[in-house]
Backbone:
């Protein structure tokens, strides 16, 4: 059993770890190909724990800025429990290689996932409860009343607006969960990934002023299911409500059938607004947090000297990612 560096050939196996019970891995390959292309920068890392027969664990550490890392984690059901704490020690050690200051690690996990209990064992605690709500674009009215003075421009139409899109999205992303702020290097990696479609990135203008930034990630290409990330620097609920159908109409034009968004369950006003617009609750998630430092990894390793050894530890395992892209 050993840690191995990330390789594109493992993506189908990684998907099975991150998406237990998925029926068609091929439908999710475009989504995860983009994810690992975008989040493979100098501050990111991926740990894959492999036995002779199979992948057992995937740990994707994504730099989130301002002392924060985002953790995406998947494990096989038959992973020996004695290795669980060892995996977390390696995560802390990897973060210690990447940054010197203590960081907070956040992870987004389905409420029903058995991983929630495992994460509690290693120090994670719940900080938010989120609800995923879905909208079926089939029920979008054939004719919608467009907000006066509002227009949308995609990065396919105006690629030079990418810096403005990044700036605007980051300004308004206080209610966006599970992804880090965007930066130019990350966007460039995403842009160069196979299958990149700039029409999925949109800027919304109200009377000539950019106020809305959004993009969507196709989750299942066969059924047209996508996760929508929508931010605005106009905090007015009435503004968001007015532009929402314009946004959904643009997504329907891109052959999507369903879009999903995540909301804090404590934000009742926003949840009600989207429910009234036709969004329906789909599943619950927990946002969990834990502290992680290299010194913590060393300390816990000293106290847990009986943990099983794992060979071939790799920290910065994206060094050869660009050479694998085709």
Residues:
């Amino acid at each position: 059993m050993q840690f191995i560096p990330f390789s594109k050939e493992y993506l189908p196996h990684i998907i099975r770890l991150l998406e237990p019970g998925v029926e068609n891995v091929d439908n999710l390959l475009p989504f995860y190909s983009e994810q690992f292309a975008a989040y493979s920068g100098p501050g990111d890392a991926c740990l894959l724990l492999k036995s002779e027969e199979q992948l057992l664990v995937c740990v994707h550490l994504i730099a989130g800025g301002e002392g924060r890392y985002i953790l995406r984690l998947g494990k096989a059901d038959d992973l020996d429990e004695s290795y669980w704490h060892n995996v977390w020690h390696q995560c802390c050690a990897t973060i210690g290689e990447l940054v010197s200051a203590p960081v907070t690690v956040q992870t987004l996990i389905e409420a029903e996932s058995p991983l929630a209990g495992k994460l509690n064992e290693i120090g994670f605690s719940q900080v938010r409860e989120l609800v995923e709500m879905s909208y079926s674009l089939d029920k979008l009215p054939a004719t919608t009343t467009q907000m006066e003075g509002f227009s949308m421009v995609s990065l396919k139409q105006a690629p030079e607006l990418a810096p403005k899109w990044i700036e605007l999205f980051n300004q308004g992303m206080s209610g966006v969960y599970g992804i880090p702020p965007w930066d130019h290097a990350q966007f460039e990696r995403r842009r160069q990934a196979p299958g990149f479609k700039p029409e999925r990135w949109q800027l919304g203008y109200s009377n000539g002023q950019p106020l809305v930034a959004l993009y969507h990630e196709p989750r299942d290409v066969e059924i047209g299911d996508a996760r929508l990330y929508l931010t605005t620097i106009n905090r007015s609920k009435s503004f968001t409500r007015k532009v929402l159908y314009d946004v959904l109409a643009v997504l329907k034009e891109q052959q999507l059938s369903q879009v999903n968004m995540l909301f804090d369950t404590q934000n009742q006003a926003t949840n009600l607004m989207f429910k009234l617009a036709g969004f329906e609750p789909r599943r619950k998630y927990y946002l969990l947090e834990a502290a992680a430092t290299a010194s913590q990894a060393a300390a816990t390793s000293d106290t847990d000297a009986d943990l099983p050894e794992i060979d071939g530890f790799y920290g910065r395992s994206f060094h050869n990612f660009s050479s694998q892209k085709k």
